[in-house]
Specification:
heterodimer, A: about 120 residues, mainly beta, four-stranded antiparallel sheet, B: about 110 residues, about 50% strand, globular
Amino acid sequence: GAGVSQSPSNKVTEKGKDVELRCDPISGHTALYWYRQRLGQGLEFLIYFQGNSAPDKSGLPSDRFSAERTGESVSTLTIQRTQQEDSAVYLCASSPGGGTSGSRAQYFGPGTRLTVT
Amino acid sequence: GNSVTQMEGPVTLSEEAFLTINCTYTATGYPSLFWYVQYPGEGLQLLLKATKADDKGSNKGFEATYRKETTSFHLEKGSVQVSDSAVYFCALGQAGTALIFGKGTTLSVSS
């Protein structure tokens, strides 16, 4: 089946504008993650959804960032009033989840490259 | 808290050289360990994983052994190819949490 898909692949926006990034996980995967990768850096965890549980938002850098997920399907990451430091590649990943989810690999989408001018 | 430390890059090797990229971790409990690879212009791909102590993950000639006594998961390959040039990320996973990644090691292989 299809892998994780993300849209748009590239987004250029002006400082102060809001942006929405979309992630379609692999069908049947209950866990969904958002990460941020700044140029030359490792991956920074943002938010984690597991089934119908309350999401783990501990990685969101500020209240300008929010994310939603509809059931076990699509997720959107919203960044309000974008700043230049928000420029990065935003990666989405999904995994089968479940009680032993720590042992399950995460499968990544191609990412959305966000540039804030 | 949990963390992953991997060797700083870049690592520059000639084709057919032996590769080691060091990775050590700090964690409570018994995490699973992963290596991901990011080829130029592509997304992250799982390379290999190990879920318990002494497990060896292997794929595409790469290997890594989960060493609990040294809290390490070093990536090795006996003979690298130009096509192995990429950024390699070591990661740690535990139930109910996102993966924790190292900062990545850039490997450049020349012919």
